[in-house]
């Protein structure tokens, strides 16, 4: 009897619609985010992550409205990420009903923002999102670096050191996405997941690369992730959340059923 | 208490800390038409039929706001008036004698117990590292109480905290969980019920607890 490993469906939302899906198909409309979040809640998802990929400022109002609606109907934790650059953005999302915010690029350009956000709102609602890519070659000691702009821009920052620093700065949790694995459906990058999970004392959410249910188990058992995040396997009905949980439990992973 | 024809008022105490909207929205969802208000106004809270005392963030800041705004008096009044009062997370911790957090902070001393840190090197019995904060879903073992009605024993609830209740009085313990060791996650004393977890984020089990709270008629 202890803390259950969490399964977190992720909604990529653009102008009020869930869009991301299977990369090899054209960008596919997966539906209304509130309806989808309700479905996952009913299925027993442990949390919902909502990533706002809208660039425009008008889109921002739509996002706030969507978060408000979701928070009135879905009573599990809700994390909102995308475009969180200052404390006002955090205040706006928390007031709309988010429980946590994910800070990504803004943390890289201004690490003190994480400190400020954690002291103002509490570490429990500050998630730092890390996009990492392996930069070592075969035969070298594995090394991963932080990338921005959807994996196009290297920053020169070591991913494990960055995780340690963000935990010290007050992050309550790390959302770790492997840019090498994202969309590949070959499973998480277990090396970087485990390296950061061993190095810090805060929970790690593994993200990027889930193609089947064994990948979720591997993320927890080998990657030492505290939670696993997936999008497309759930959105397009390949697997349901209860199927994922039943599989994980059968493999000895403690999940909330 | 309001008459049957009039919707009851449930006040969620606002003292400037954290996100109260989740709690208010969840209570609205289950309260069958109650008037749910988020307020720091002592008069409005005094007029309410039920009071929710939430809290997130650091205890020092919470206690400073509680004392600075006179929320301690409001909470005492509600308890003395026999109204059902539900404290959540740091709201619960603030009711205890003291907390280790922020180098030691005095609480309101309404419930017996102290608040302690899980520690940097928290491990389970097998020696595996346990992350702090204790964040996620854990099972709650119940001690019979009307607020658990319709909730299966050992159901999962959502937690997020780094400090836990220690030295509670056995007769006030209403629930416990396990994270490296057993610890108290629910306390009850007369018309007061306090929980470490977040019922407003605990799916069906949490909503049922809030529904029970909205209907609870504690013995005078």
UniProtKB/TrEMBL annotation, chain A:
It catalyses: 5-[(5-phospho-1-deoxy-D-ribulos-1-ylimino)methylamino]-1-(5-phospho-beta-D-ribosyl)imidazole-4-carboxamide + L-glutamine = D-erythro-1-(imidazol-4-yl)glycerol 3-phosphate + 5-amino-1-(5-phospho-beta-D-ribosyl)imidazole-4-carboxamide + L-glutamate + H(+). Pathway: Amino-acid biosynthesis; L-histidine biosynthesis; L-histidine from 5-phospho-alpha-D-ribose 1-diphosphate: step 5/9. The keyword Cytoplasm applies. It comes from the Bacteria. GO terms for molecular function: lyase activity. The active site is at 12, 131. It is found in: Cytoplasm. Its EC number is 4.3.2.10. It is an enzyme of class 4 (lyase). The keyword Ribonucleoprotein does not apply. Keywords: Amino-acid biosynthesis, Cytoplasm, Histidine biosynthesis, Lyase. Pfam families: His_biosynth. IGPS catalyzes the conversion of PRFAR and glutamine to IGP, AICAR and glutamate. The HisF subunit catalyzes the cyclization activity that produces IGP and AICAR from PRFAR using the ammonia provided by the HisH subunit. Heterodimer of HisH and HisF. Belongs to the HisA/HisF family. This is Imidazole glycerol phosphate synthase subunit HisF. It comes from Sinobacterium norvegicum.
TrEMBL record, chain B:
The active site is at residues 89, 198, 200. Its EC number is 4.3.2.10, 3.5.1.2. The keyword Cytoplasm applies. It catalyses: L-glutamine + H2O = L-glutamate + NH4(+); 5-[(5-phospho-1-deoxy-D-ribulos-1-ylimino)methylamino]-1-(5-phospho-beta-D-ribosyl)imidazole-4-carboxamide + L-glutamine = D-erythro-1-(imidazol-4-yl)glycerol 3-phosphate + 5-amino-1-(5-phospho-beta-D-ribosyl)imidazole-4-carboxamide + L-glutamate + H(+). SUPFAM superfamilies: Class I glutamine amidotransferase-like. Pfam families: GATase. It comes from the Bacteria. GO terms for molecular function: lyase activity. Pathway: Amino-acid biosynthesis; L-histidine biosynthesis; L-histidine from 5-phospho-alpha-D-ribose 1-diphosphate: step 5/9. It is found in: Cytoplasm. Its main location: cytoplasm. Gene3D superfamilies: 3.40.50.880. The keyword Cytoplasm applies. Residues 12-213 form the Glutamine amidotransferase domain. PROSITE patterns: GATASE_TYPE_1. Heterodimer of HisH and HisF. IGPS catalyzes the conversion of PRFAR and glutamine to IGP, AICAR and glutamate. The HisH subunit catalyzes the hydrolysis of glutamine to glutamate and ammonia as part of the synthesis of IGP and AICAR. The resulting ammonia molecule is channeled to the active site of HisF. This is Imidazole glycerol phosphate synthase subunit HisH. It comes from Sinobacterium norvegicum.
């Amino acid at each position: 009897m202890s803390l259950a490993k969490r399964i977190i469906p992720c909604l990529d939302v653009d102008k009020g619609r869930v869009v991301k899906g299977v990369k090899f198909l054209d960008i596919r409309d997966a539906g209304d985010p509130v309806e989808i979040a309700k479905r996952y809640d009913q299925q027993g998802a442990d949390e919902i992550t909502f990533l706002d990929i809208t660039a425009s400022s008008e889109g921002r109002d739509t996002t706030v409205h969507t978060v408000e609606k979701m928070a009135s109907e879905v009573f599990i934790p809700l994390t909102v990420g995308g475009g969180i650059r200052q404390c006002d953005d955090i205040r706006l999302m928390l007031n709309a009903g988010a429980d946590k915010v994910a800070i990504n690029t803004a943390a890289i350009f201004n690490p003190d923002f994480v400190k400020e956000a954690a002291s103002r709102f509490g570490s429990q609602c500050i998630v730092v999102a890390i996009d990492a890519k392996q930069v070592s070659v075969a035969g070298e000691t594995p090394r991963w670096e932080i990338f921005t702009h959807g994996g196009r821009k290297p920053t020169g920052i070591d991913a494990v050191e960055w995780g340690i620093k963000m935990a010290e700065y007050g992050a309550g949790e790390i959302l770790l996405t492997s840019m090498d694995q994202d969309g590949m459906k070959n499973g998480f990058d277990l090396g970087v997941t485990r390296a950061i999970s061993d190095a810090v004392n805060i929970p790690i959410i593994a993200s990027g690369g889930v193609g089947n249910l064994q990948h979720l188990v591997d993320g927890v058992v080998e990657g030492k992730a505290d939670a696993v995040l997936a999008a497309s396997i759930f959105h397009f009905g390949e697997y349901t959340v209860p199927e994922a949980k039943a599989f994980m439990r059968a493999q000895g992973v403690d999940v909330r059923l | 208490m309001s008459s049957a024809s009039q919707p009851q008022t449930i006040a969620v105490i606002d003292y400037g800390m954290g996100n109260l909207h989740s709690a208010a929205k969840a209570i609205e969802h289950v309260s069958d038409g109650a008037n749910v208000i988020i307020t720091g106004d002592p008069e409005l809270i005094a007029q309410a039929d039920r009071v929710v005392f939430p809290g997130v963030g650091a205890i020092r800041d919470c206690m400073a706001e509680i004392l600075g705004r006179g929320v301690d008096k409001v909470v005492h009044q509600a308890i003395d008036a026999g109204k059902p009062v539900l404290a959540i997370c740091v709201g619960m911790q603030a009711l205890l004698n003291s907390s280790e957090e922020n180098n030691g902070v005095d609480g309101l001393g309404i419930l017996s117990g102290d608040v302690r840190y899980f520690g940097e090197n928290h491990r389970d019995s097998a020696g595996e590292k346990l992350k702090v904060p204790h964040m996620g879903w854990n099972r709650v073992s119940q001690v019979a109480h009307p607020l658990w009605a319709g909730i299966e024993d050992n159901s999962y609830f959502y937690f997020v905290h780094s400090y836990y209740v220690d030295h509670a009085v056995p007769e006030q313990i209403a629930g416990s969980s396990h994270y490296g060791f057993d610890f108290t996650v629910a306390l009850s004393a007369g018309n007061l019920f306090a929980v470490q977890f977040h019922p407003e984020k605990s799916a069906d089990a949490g909503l049922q607890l809030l529904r029970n709270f909205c209907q609870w008629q504690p013995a005078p």
